[in-house]
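task queued by scheduler; priority normal; single chain, no ligands, no partner chains; default sampling; output format set to C-alpha cells
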Amino acid sequence: MKVSDYIAGFLAGTGCEYVFGYPGGAVTHLIDSLYRIPGIRLVGCCHEQAAAFAAEGYARRKGTPGVAMATSGPGATNLVTGIGSAFFDSVPVVYLTGQVNTYEYKGRKKLRQLGFQETDIVSIAAPVTKYAVRVTDPMEIRRELEKSMRIAVSGRPGPVLLDLPMDLQREDVPPEALDGDRETPTPVTKPDVGRVVELLNASRRPVLLAGGGIRLSGAEQKFRELAGRLRIPVVSSLMGLDVCAGMENSVGMIGSYGCRCANFTVANSDLVLAVGTRLDTRQTGTNPESFARGARLIRVDIDPDELEHEIKRNEFQIQADAGAFLEELLSHAGKICSDTEEWRKTVRGYQNRYPAGGENGPGNPNRILERLSGLIGPDDTVCLDVGQNQMWAAQSLHLSAGNRLLTSGGMGAMGFALPCAVGAWYAGSRGKVLAVTGDGGMQMNLQELEVLARDRIPVKILVFNNQSLGMIRQFQELYFDGRLNATVDDYGAPDFCKIAGAYGIENTRVREGESPEKLSELLNSPEPALIEFALPQTTLVVPKLEVGRPVEDQNPLLPREELRRNMIVEPYGEARRYRAKIRAVFNRYKGVGGDFSPRRIPVPDESGAAAAFLRPITADFRVSLPGIESLLSKWRNENPGLNAKPFTATPERTAVWLDRLVIGKEDRLLFLIQAPDGKPVGHIGFAGFDYEEKSCEVDAVLRGEKSARPGLMGFALMALLRWGRRELGLKVIRLRVFQDNPHAIRFYRKNGFAVEREEQTGENGEGKCHTVMRYSEENTTETN
C-alpha cells in the first residue's frame, strides 16, 4: 500500500471525514489518496491559513481532532498562525505538510536551501505544537500517526505536525508489518476535593469562574449541574462563555472587555473557584494583585506549567482534568451548604444596574446583537472574529444551552471567523452556522467566499462595518491623542455586498436604525448569505479597562461615589496601583522569579562620559557577586557614624541583612556603584516609600571606598534620582542625615537637596537627631 493511501485510510479510521487544505507539488500524492480512499475527502480552501482555521473549527465543533494539509515552503509557513491559534486555545489538530524529497534536503550542509521550497517547518512549528516531526522512514508511518493522535488529545490538548517528504508519500509499505504506538494515554486520576468543600462552606460570597478547559474536557453538563446544585453566581472567561449559555445564575464575561456586573461580582467575592482557565491579564487586569483581592482563589488546571505561574499568593491549586474535578466535586455536593441568598441578591443588583454593552441607541452594536439573539436557534453555532465585533458579541449575544461560540482567544487572529465557520459546518452542526466579523477581519480571509459559493455552504456572515480598525482606533483615541494612523488614515474597506454578489452569494445591508429582525428569512435560508451592518465610524467597545486599573473600574469611569457604593471590599486606589508598579520594577531588577540578568544604569560625569554604573544587587548575590557580604560589612564598619545605634557588621550578618531587609523587602532596592573596570566602590539605593505621595528615601549613599574617584558619589546620586523620576514616577525624594554629620549635609546640599525638617529618633528624647532633606532640581547649586 502506498504511504499516502495509508495516511488517508488511517485518518478515515479515526472518524475524520474531512481534511482542509490547499494543493501543492509536495502533497500531490496525499491529495490523490484523499480523493480515492472512501470515507474521507479534501475540502479545498483558498489559503493555507484558512485551512488551518477551518480544521480548528471542525475540531471544536465535532470534539475530535481536525486535520489540515499544506505543501512545503510557503504552504507550510502559511499554516503557522492557525497552528498557534490551536496551540494557545488547546485544540487538537493534526497538520500534515509536504516536504521535498529526502535526497533533496540540505541536512547538515550550511546552505539556506537545497530543494525547491525546502523549509524546515518542524523547527518553525516546534514552539507552537505539542509534537512536530519529519517522517523519513516509511515503516514508521503508523507509529508516528498513532503517536501524534495520542499526543494531540491527551492531557492538555493541542496541535501536532507531521512533515512528509514526497518520496516517503509514494513509497509502498506492507500495512501488516507496521508497528504501532506502544505508549498508552496517562489515566485520569481522581482529585482530592476535601479542601475545596471546606472553602466553599466557609465562603459567603463565592463565584464559579468557567474557562474553556471545561468544554475541552467535555464537562459542560457537569459544570452546569454543579452550578445549579450550589446556586452561586457564575462568571466566565471569553473561552468559557458558551459553557454558561442560558444558565439562570450566569452573570457574564469578566475582564478587560467584560460586563461591569460580572467584574463587580468577581471583585467583591470572597472565594473564586476557577475551572479550566489560565487567568491571563485580559481577565485579571494588568495588576493581578488587584484581581479578586478580597477572595481566596482556587485554580483547577490540567497543565502544571500554568499552575506554576501564580496569580495570587495564597491560591489553592488542583492539577486535574476539569471533567474529573467536576465529577468528584459533584459527588460531594451534598456536603456543601453555603448560604448565598444575600450575595445572589447583591449580584442581581449589579445586573440590573449595569446591563451589557453600554448606552442604548440605534447605532449601538450591542443592542443589534441582543436583538439578533432572538434569531439564533437552539443548536446554532456562532464563530467570532477578532476585534470590536468579538467583544460586542461576547458582551451581548444571549445564547442557549445548545449553542456553541467559537473564537480565537489566545492568538487573537483576525480573519478567523469565516474559515472557522466552514470547518464548523463540515463538523455536522445541526443548526445554522454564523460568522460574526468586522470589516478588517473580513478582508483577511475574504477569498474563502469561494468555498461557500462552490459547495453552497449555508454559512451566514454578519459583517459589522465601521470603516475602521475599530479596536486599535479606540486604543489610539485613548493613548495616542487621536492620531488614527493606519486605522482610519491609510485604511479602507470595500463594498462587501458587491463582493458577495460577485461570488453569487445572496447579500443585504442593514443601515443604522433599521431593524435586524427583518433578516429572519435570510438567516434561515439553505444558502450562504452575507449581511452587512453599516455602523458609525466612531463606535466603541464599552466598558473597557485601562492599563493599571482593577477590572471593576472600567471606562467610561463611574463617579467615584458610585464605585464605592458598589464595593464590598476595599476599593483599589491609586496608591495600591503605584505600590504594585514599584514592586514589579524592583522584583525585576532584583531578579525575583529567576531573571538574574543585571539591568545596569549608567552614571555619567559632567562631560556625559560613563564614570560608573549602578548594578542592582540581585537575589542570586551569593553566586553573581561572590564576596559582596565582606565588602559591604567593611563599608558599614568604616562609617559607624551613619548607624542609628552601634553595631559591628560581619559577612554573615550582612548576608542575612541582604536576604531579609534588601532582597526580601518589596520597597527596597540596592545598587552597587561599579567603576568602569567593574570594581565596586560604593552602594546606593531607594527605600521607605510613601505610595500616596509617590515619594521615597535615598538609602545609604555615603558608604563606599574612600579611594573612589572624587565626585563619583555625586554622579551616582544624580543618576539614581533621574532613574527614580523617569522609571518609578517619583514626585518627592528625601533622605535622612544625622545632625552630627555636617560633611554629609554639605554634600547633599551641593547635589540638590534642601533641609525640610528636623526629627528626633527614639523615645523620651533618646536617640539621634535627623535632618530630613528633600531633593529638588532647583536646589542644585553646583556640580559635585
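post-processing summary
- The CA atoms of residues 80 and 125 lie 7 Å apart.
- The mean pLDDT is 90.
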